[in-house]
Amino acid sequence: MKKVIGYFLFVLSFMAWAAIAILPFLNLSIEMSAAITTALIVGGEIAFVLSIALLGKEFLGKIKSFFNKLNFFRKEK
Fold it and tell me: Which pick of 17, 24, 41, 46 has the fewest CB atoms within 10 Å?
């Protein structure tokens, strides 16, 4: 059950970022858009950290290896 919740939170964290991309197309005031964007960013980050905590080190290692293949964490000399 812990893994199911972890995967759900992981997907939810990316859905929060996708929802931010939809906000400009909604008929909202600037203040409302800013408040919703802030809530989605904070909620997405919290969901991501909780998913990593629930899924463990091996899942974090898989994420790191995926980004290492893309040279995302490349060290500059």
Answer: 24
Q: Can you tell me whether residue 26 is helix, strand or coil?
A: coil
pLDDT digits (tens, 9 = 90+) for 7-29: 999 999 999 999 999 998 999 99
Return the closest-CA partner of residue 2 out of 40, 59, 43: 59
Report the sign of the C-alpha dihedral through residues 22, 23, 24, 25, in that order: positive
Please, what is the Cα angle at 9 between 27 and 3, to 5 degrees? 160
Q: Residue 61 is inside which H or E element, if any?
A: helix 57-69
List, as own/partner pairs, every contact residues 41-46 make where C-beta atoms lie below 8 angstroms and the sequence separation is at least 24, other chains included: 41/16, 41/17, 43/16, 44/12, 44/13, 44/14, 44/15, 44/16, 44/17, 45/13
